[in-house]
Amino acid sequence: MSVLATAGMIRQLEAIGPFDAEACMNCGVCSAACPLGIDLLPRRLFRYALLGLGDRIHDASGPIFSCLLCRACEASCPAGVHITENVRVLRHWLLQEGS
Amino acid sequence: MPLPVRDVVGILADNLRLRGSVLPIPARRATAWARDLGIPRGGETVLYTGQMYQLIPYIERLVRLEQRLGDSPLARFSGVARRANRLVNGVAFVARPGASERAEYDRVPANVARLLQKAGVAFGYLYEDDLYSGALAHDLGADEAVAAHARRVVGILRKHGVREVITIDPHTTTMLRTVYPKLVEGYDVRVRSYLEVLAECGLPVGVPLSGTVAIHDSCVYARYEGIVDEPRRLLGSVGLTVAEPENAGQWTWCCGGPAESLFPTTAAAIAGKRVEQLRAVAPDCVTMCPICLVNLRKAANGTMRLRDISDHLLDAVAERGVSAAHVGGQTQ
What we know:
Chain A is mainly α. Chain A is 55% helix and 0% strand. Chain A has helices spanning 9-16, 29-33, 43-51, 54-59, 61-66, 72-76, 83-97. Chain B folds into 2 domains: 5-198, no CATH class; 204-327, Rossmann fold. In chain B, the strands form 2 sheets. A 4-stranded parallel beta sheet of chain B has the order 2-1-3-4. Chain B has a 4-stranded parallel beta sheet with strand order 6-5-7-8.
């Protein structure tokens, strides 16, 4: 299966605000702690962003905007990723992109 | 089915930019709670409501409308609605809560003002200049509109010579204390929640209370602002025993409210789970955020008693025979 990468996507995100997805270790504690039980947020989502998979981010618009920003994930994250701020940055990017 | 996110966020951002609030309500409604309290205008220290509690009845009306629209063919015209809203304030037409609904949430800022007065704290109020903080637009990523609004609010605080702000809800607290300094250069206003102020100066308890209440911590107070101990100290000081539910303090469980404007069904499911956790430790629950209060009340549907923390505190400091339930309106 082929995917379309958005060149310079990580630079676009970092221009919006601090975006530290690269610190994510993909351990999944965040998903386990999420009250919504959203499997997608945030670890796979951050991989999409780092790989420039803009289409996948667009497809995930629903989970991105339904995130409660409650920081249950951040309180548990062993890598100290600023998950909710990253989600806010992705929301801004989606609004700019026209989702 | 949710309405198109971009149009909903666009309407909220347009309102913030054009009318100073995501849900613009008349100043006389936003300030009605302060009538008869004799709070001076302005001053170096002000009570800042950010209109959060006052907005809840309007938000509730809009969410109900949104749910109906989301399931109808009219949802396709959300873009048209956004363009029309730029010309005419749509909220004024579609969200008209009744007097009893408004009184239920207006009671909380009045409670807080009375508590501060009883504790001997000197403060003023900005009345029509007490603007919404932009919290919801910030959460949704409407950053340009929020940055412009933050500059507007800070300009108002500077115009009035405000050096310290006392907030009454977690969302306004984190906006004014943590977000605004990143958006407005030279912003140096001291911001404290009334819970922090009262925990520091103490409450003059007139009628000690008894009983046990389940505590529901706000995610924003607990995990954004580190306010966990203060509400427990205050409740303990008035004689109440605090029952800690599963997921409390720093590990509190969200009420679901932040998802309500776009995903009301999801919000209701989260709130339902939280009510079960709270009900398991006590039939009475105390909240400290307007969004938590309204969401959990809806989910509980009368199966447990939910009150704002200020109601309990005022019961304890009020004159004998005068409780929060009688001061500003009814309780549920």
